[in-house]
Amino acid sequence: xxxxxxxxxxxxxxxxxxxxxxxxxxxxxxxxxxxxxxxxxxxxxxxxxxxxxxxxxxxxxxxxxxxxxxxxxxxxxxxxxxxxxxxxxxxxxxxxxxxxxxxxxxxxxxxxxxxxxxxxxxxxxxxxxxxxxxxxxxxxxxxxxxxxxxxxxxxxxxxxxxxxxxxxxxxxxxxxxxxxxxxxxxxxxxxxxxxxxxxxxxxxxxxxxxxxxxxxxxxxxxxxxxxxxxxxxxxxxxxxxxxxxxxxxxxxxxxxxxxxxxxxxxxxxxxxxxxxxxxxxxxxxxxxxxxxxxxxxxxxxxxx
Length: 304
Ligand code: MLT
Ligand code: MN
Ligand code: ZN
What we know:
- The chain is α/β, with parallel strands linked by helices and 304 residues long.
- The chain has a single domain (2-303), classed as Metallo-beta-lactamase, Chain A, CATH 3.60.15.
- The protein has ten helices and 14 strands.
- Bound molecules: D-malate, manganese (II) ion and zinc ion.
- Zinc ion (ZN) binds at residues 15-16, 19, 21, 23-24, 273-274.
């Protein structure tokens, strides 16, 4: 299978429109060894023509323009996007659905029941789309069973509930439910190769650890380096944990988890604009490089 990182940034992207933090400011002024990043999304395919989109970012229009394989090929209206899997209902993962409204067939959307509820109440985009292209909703099972997607050859998807956060607009932001956020293992049936994708991960529960051990490649939450990174940047008092994300550093941070899983490709994704690892010359980035951990950037492609 092949996957393409369409957007490697967290909500807001990098630089964020109103942000003057050191990373954003230095990027605008050409004073940092870093590249800009659009908001969080990947695409996966086995034939490089039929793609599953994971999350629909507000930057999807630019992401498609930068990726010929997914662009129209035949007929007056066409797309390589055959289905969309939503791992949560966050703004940075779902507003791109509005950009896809010109589709000439209903969008095939796979999400959990909790995500469907958010997207028909707090942010009723699935209802709004009924008056445009329409939506075929498919409920993602969270009971350990796998599912396949018609038109997507040779891939099987397994997902599980995670501890992270429903979005601020969600009626159950402070009342967590299974399925508010999910992690997905994407398995190529013919080869048995597995990619584990989880851009919003608040805690490594036993089933998450197992999925990570079983995968050949990990594409996991790289939002924050430190728990108090937002406060440190003078932006907000919210900790990474309060926002549903693990930090990379710290005793139980993502680094300590990944360091115990050395024999696979390990890539951080959904990088917030405050994160020092965006600076390729930073000490923090050096720590990752020495540990053999990669940092996703837009346009990165991996063949598994
Ligand atoms: C998150 O994952 O916490 C989001 O990026 C926040 C947001 O979209 O504002
Ligand atoms: Mn996000
Ligand atoms: Zn910033």
